[in-house]
């Protein structure tokens, strides 16, 4: 049971201390006890006001959501000064929105993505997340309508989702020239129509260059090494990158820690083997997870449905977890680069309607994947209404692209 709410000043001070904990160590590190140590409050006082950890998490989500909405308002006011709103200006604003979140509000962005990627949202936290998604979409729609854009209704949620997805990747990769070039190319393609026009930029060299950040030979997954690699992959999928250690892997594989160290000397060696195994296993599963029916828009609806499409959502979630971990640990940046470079790799399965047009290239695949994935992680309530809304946005992107290149 919760007690009376602390005064606004005290609550803000507590939530800023909570943000510091979450931004530095993750949401799992936030508790009444750790908050007490960081803020100087006694455990008794915090228990009196919040009752239990879930109420603290709900208060934290509410505070961070209000901070996000305030930041959205500030960005929108600035963006309204940019007229006329042509494609170049819109691309610049999209980049600015991402860079502002990464450079000027980094701790808030880290804590917000921790909340978004948490598997167990309470109703209160889900409502806070949903309020930010709606505000982000409304802000972009207002800008587009003010600029006279004829497709503001579906382009606004697409940009909002894209910005969210790329903000997460930019937290760990923003300093890499290869990534920034790829991000700029994705933005341009999204605004021009995702399918390539004549003489369109070839995305493949940029993607290959980003993927090459992880300079490692493919792992051997045979014998005991393969068994341990599978245990690592399972641990990453269920507990996240932050849970990986020699001891944790040894417990999952039921072998001594010295055996894990024999095959995988460093934590980076462990991560490489486990992530590589996980991607290979999920790729095999993806072929069985998707329908074999007509090549229409049902692919995206199935993949977004909580009752199906589990494999590709796991692929997406692992990529998000790697990016968030790499934002705190630069040693993991090559793994984040690998995960980002793989976006869109399975688009012909996930977006069969787009593939059926014959116009799909890796640039189109990346944009569609980034929009769908960003929409998924920023939705507080993932129900059939939301699934249909995201699917409709994807379908409209495809229809607009086909018309723009006729």
Task: Indicate the mean pLDDT.
Answer: 87
Strand content: under 5%
N-to-C SSE series?
Answer: HHHHHHHHHHHHHHHHHHHHH
- Major sheet attributes: none
The span between the termini is: 62 Å
Poorly predicted sequence stretches spanning 5 or more consecutive residues: 291-298
**Radius of gyration from the alpha-carbon trace, in angstroms:** 22 Å
Question: What global shape is seen?
Answer: globular
The class by helix and strand makeup works out as mainly alpha
Total strands: 0
Annotation field: number of helices: 21
Percentage of helical residues? over 70%
Can you lay out the helices and strands and say which pair or pack?
Elements: H1 8-25, H2 32-39, H3 43-50, H4 53-79, H5 87-103, H6 106-117, H7 123-146, H8 152-173, H9 177-192, H10 204-211, H11 223-239, H12 246-253, H13 257-263, H14 267-289, H15 298-304, H16 310-328, H17 333-341, H18 347-350, H19 352-355, H20 362-377, H21 384-404
